[in-house]
Every structure is written in C-alpha cells, then in structure tokens.
C-alpha cells in the first residue's frame, strides 16, 4: 500500500468518504485522490513525491499560485500577533476599503468566513430589506451549501442523482425558484432577489449570453427585486472590478470568497449602503461570526489584492489564452470534439460537438464520460485538473509558459490515447 492509499483508507475510516468536501473524493473520475504534501506556485506535490501542474488552485482561491512568498510572510507575521480576538482589527477596515474601492457601485461590505456564509447571509439580507420571500436562482449555478440555495446546484452537487440534497426540507426551498441559465425569467412582486453567477463556473464554464445580465438588471428593476452577483469565483479574478466592471452591469448585492482570502477561509458580501445598513447592529437583519474578519485571512487577502493590478490581470489573461488555445488545438487535433470556453482568466473544458449554454447542455457533455478519461490520462502525465466535469480550470499568475506548454503536450497525448481506444 502506498502512503497515499493508506491515508485515504485511514481517512475513510474517520471522515465520511475520506474527504472534507465531496468533489475531492474523485467519485466522478475514479481512482484514489492524491493527498497533497505541499504546493509551490503552479505546482502541487503529493505525499508520494509526484509533482503536478495544478489547475485546481483551491477552486480559484490561489490566484497567485501556492505559497506565494509575500502571502506566507504576511500570514506568519499576522500569526505572531495573535490569530483571533473577537474584537475589530485594523486589517478588516483596510480589506473592506480595498473591496469597496475596487467594485463599482458597492458601498459597504461585511466579512465572513466562506462563500457559503456570504451567499446565505446576503439572501437573508435581501429578504429582510425587501420584506419579500421568493429567491430566484439558475440551474447549474452553485452558491455554496445553505439549504435555500441547494437546489439544481452545479459543482459536485450536480453529480447527486437530483442535483440537490437530502436533508433540505421542502419548506426550506419552498420560496426558491429555479430558472434556466442564460434566459431572463419572468419575475413578480414576491421576488426578493435574483442570485446569479455572472459567469457560470460550476457547470464547467458557461459565459453569460449577450444581454443576459443586463436583462436580469432590467427585470429586477421592473418589479423592485434585488439582483445579486455571486462573485465567489469571478470576483477579483475577471479583473480589478470583477464581473461588474467587465460586463458593465451593477447588481445591488455581491458575494465574494476565494481570492480575497489568499487561501485562508474567507467570504464577504456587500452592496449599496441603504441595503447594507439593514444589517445588525444598524438594522434588524441578524448576521454574525466568531472568526469573521480573521486576522490571518485579512493579512493574506490584503497581500493578494495588492499584487492584483491591471498588469497582473493582463498577464493572467495571457496565460489563460495560451492554455485555452493550446488545449483546443491539441485535443481537437487528436480528433476529439471539444470546446474550450474562456472568459478572461477562466477556462472551461467540454467534450462533445454541441455548444454548452446552460445546465442541460453541460450535462450532455459531462455524460459522454470523456472528461473522466481525459482527467485520468492527464493526471498520469502530471497535470491536475479538477476531479469533476462541472468545474472550471484555474490558471494562476504562477503558471509559466513552460507549465502551459507541458500541459498542452500532455493534452495532445491524452486525447490521442482516448481517440484510439
Ligand atoms: C460561485 C460560488 N459561490 C459560492 C461558493 C461557496 O463557497 P465556499 O465553498 O467557500 O463555501 C462557491 C464555491 O464553493 C462558488 O463557486
Ligand atoms: N466548485 C466548488 C467551488 O467553487 C468546488 C469546491 C468544493 O466543493 O470543495
């Protein structure tokens, strides 16, 4: 038994499935997950000493790559001063100022400890601020695992038989309406908030159709509903001002996570001042957290954001472009039908000839089973993609041309192997 196999066996004895988040168990790609010993920039090294070019990057949390020296130094310095107090600290204010300064239209923000907490709290706020009940979400969008949002979910929820979860009562989702992505749904005066991934990145990568986000803005305005962008993936990745800046559409509420914590547990939700001032202690909508605004997470997040200027985004775009172009020609050249959508630094991978525009078409691609075979063939060649067909690829600022070219060579070999089988 290898160390890896042994760890997985021991993990399965004491942790359900051996993992602390289902996608990590390799359920949809088969085999034993690699246990990471350490990360170095664009690479992870497993407990057997095998090195992979890593496109998981903690599902987008590690935009600078793993163990960036400035982030390590900031976290070490913060830890030496104490890791949590239950009292406000200066860096919480600094991080909130950075977020508000970058996102056009966002006036206030509250820090939490995960993306799930961010969307869950923002939904409560939207209901409290409007006095309405209904929330509208889109099939294949994933907003974390709060009950009201755990229906027709993307990411690894999509691999559950019904894309939702046992234990979520019909009452908990009675006021959740699910609509197809990329179609503006009819809304009425009961709708408190429409929550959307402005670029869907949890059913593979599905860009918003032309006019979709503006259509949502107009439909919300027509009935007095709030619009929320779940930017847990897109925030501070698509550019300095995230999806709001890229698409020129401002929602009323935003949810963030991942990048703003520099690899530590963090989330945030923000919005217009009049809406945010409905939150306790100013208003009647309760929300709280022992570790919210955590000193280590704010140190890491501030350090990451300081590295993310316009030049950094241009470089990241270049890395993602090289990757997307290379994968398209390597896989297509081997005779497999493939689509490699890209929105700035975000890259997707769908097998099959038909365009993917929503959850239905994403499932058609996933169910070909080609992703599973491609994933395994790439892992054998030292390239780690996400272990599920409903995820995106996350090139980081640490990926070099050499890393990308190695990936493309591996992709050509893997696709040829699959095409011949
Ligand atoms: C768009 C989106 N929203 C919310 C979440 C939930 O974030 P977390 O896993 O930090 O709870 C995720 C990722 O998991 C996500 O991708
Ligand atoms: N797609 C998810 C987040 O973006 C994957 C993270 C997880 O579920 O562990």
Automatic annotation (TrEMBL):
Organism listed in the record: Actinomarinicola tropica
Lineage, broadest ranks: Bacteria, Bacillati, Actinomycetota, Acidimicrobiia, Acidimicrobiales
Gene Ontology terms describing biological process: protoporphyrinogen IX biosynthetic process
Enzyme Commission number, as recorded: 5.4.3.8
Swiss-Prot/TrEMBL keywords: Cytoplasm, Isomerase, Porphyrin biosynthesis, Pyridoxal phosphate
Molecular function in Gene Ontology: glutamate-1-semialdehyde 2,1-aminomutase activity; pyridoxal phosphate binding; transaminase activity
Classification via Gene3D superfamilies: Aspartate Aminotransferase, domain 1, Type I PLP-dependent aspartate aminotransferase-like (Major domain)
UniProt record similarity statement: Belongs to the class-III pyridoxal-phosphate-dependent aminotransferase family. HemL subfamily.
Subunit structure, interactors included: Homodimer.
Subcellular location(s) per record: Cytoplasm
Cofactor(s) it depends on: pyridoxal 5'-phosphate
Annotated HAMAP family: HemL_aminotrans_3
Name the record gives this protein: Glutamate-1-semialdehyde 2,1-aminomutase
Gene Ontology, cellular component aspect: cytoplasm
Catalytic activity: (S)-4-amino-5-oxopentanoate = 5-aminolevulinate
Matching PANTHER family: GLUTAMATE-1-SEMIALDEHYDE 2,1-AMINOMUTASE, GLUTAMATE-1-SEMIALDEHYDE 2,1-AMINOMUTASE 1, CHLOROPLASTIC-RELATED
Pathway: Porphyrin-containing compound metabolism; protoporphyrin-IX biosynthesis; 5-aminolevulinate from L-glutamyl-tRNA(Glu): step 2/2
Location of N6-(pyridoxal phosphate)lysine modifications: 258
InterPro entries membership: 4pyrrol_synth_GluAld_NH2Trfase, Aminotrans_3, PyrdxlP-dep_Trfase, PyrdxlP-dep_Trfase_major, PyrdxlP-dep_Trfase_small
Gene designation per UniProt: hemL
């Amino acid at each position: 038994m290898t160390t890896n196999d042994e760890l997985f066996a021991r993990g399965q004895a004491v942790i359900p499935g051996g993992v602390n988040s289902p996608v990590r168990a390799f359920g949809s790609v088969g085999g034993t997950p690699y246990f990471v010993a350490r990360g170095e920039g664009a690479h992870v090294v497993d407990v057997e000493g095998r090195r992979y070019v890593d496109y998981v990057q903690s599902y987008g949390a590690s935009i600078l790559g793993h163990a960036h020296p400035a982030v390590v130094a900031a976290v070490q310095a913060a830890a030496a001063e104490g890791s949590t107090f239950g009292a406000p600290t200066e860096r919480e204010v600094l991080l909130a100022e950075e977020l508000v300064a970058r996102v056009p239209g966002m006036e206030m923000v509250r820090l939490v400890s995960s993306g799930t907490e961010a969307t869950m709290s923002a939904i409560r706020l939207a209901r409290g601020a409007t006095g309405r009940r209904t929330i509208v979400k889109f099939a294949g969008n994933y907003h974390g695992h709060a009950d009201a949002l755990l229906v027709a979910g993307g990411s690894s929820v999509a691999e559950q038989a019904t894309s939702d979860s046992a234990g979520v009562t019909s009452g908990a989702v009675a006021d959740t309406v699910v609509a197809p992505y990329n179609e503006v749904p009819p809304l009425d005066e009961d709708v408190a908030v429409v929550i959307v991934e402005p670029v869907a990145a949890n059913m593979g990568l599905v860009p918003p159709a032309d006019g979709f986000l503006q259509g949502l803005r107009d439909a919300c305005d027509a009935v007095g509903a709030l619009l929320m962008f779940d930017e847990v993936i897109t925030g501070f990745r698509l550019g300095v001002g995230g999806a709001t800046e890229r698409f020129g559409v401002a929602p009323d509420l935003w949810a963030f996570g991942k990048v703003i914590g520099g690899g530590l547990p963090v989330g945030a939700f923000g919005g217009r001042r009049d809406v945010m001032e409905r939150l306790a202690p100013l208003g009647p909508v309760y929300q709280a957290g022992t570790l919210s605004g955590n000193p280590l997470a704010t140190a890491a997040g501030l350090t990451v954001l300081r590295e993310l200027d316009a030049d950094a985004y241009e470089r990241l775009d270049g890395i993602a472009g090289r990757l997307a172009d290379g994968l398209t020609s390597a896989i297509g050249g081997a005779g497999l039908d493939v689509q490699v959508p890209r929105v700035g630094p975000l890259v997707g991978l769908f097998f099959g000839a038909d365009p993917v525009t929503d959850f239905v078409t994403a499932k058609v691609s996933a169910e070909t089973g080609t992703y599973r075979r491609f994933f395994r063939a790439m892992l054998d060649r030292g390239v780690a993609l996400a272990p599920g067909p409903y995820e995106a690829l996350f090139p980081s600022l640490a990926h070099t041309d050499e890393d990308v070219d190695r990936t493309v060579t591996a992709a050509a070999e893997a696709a040829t192997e699959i095409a011949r089988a």
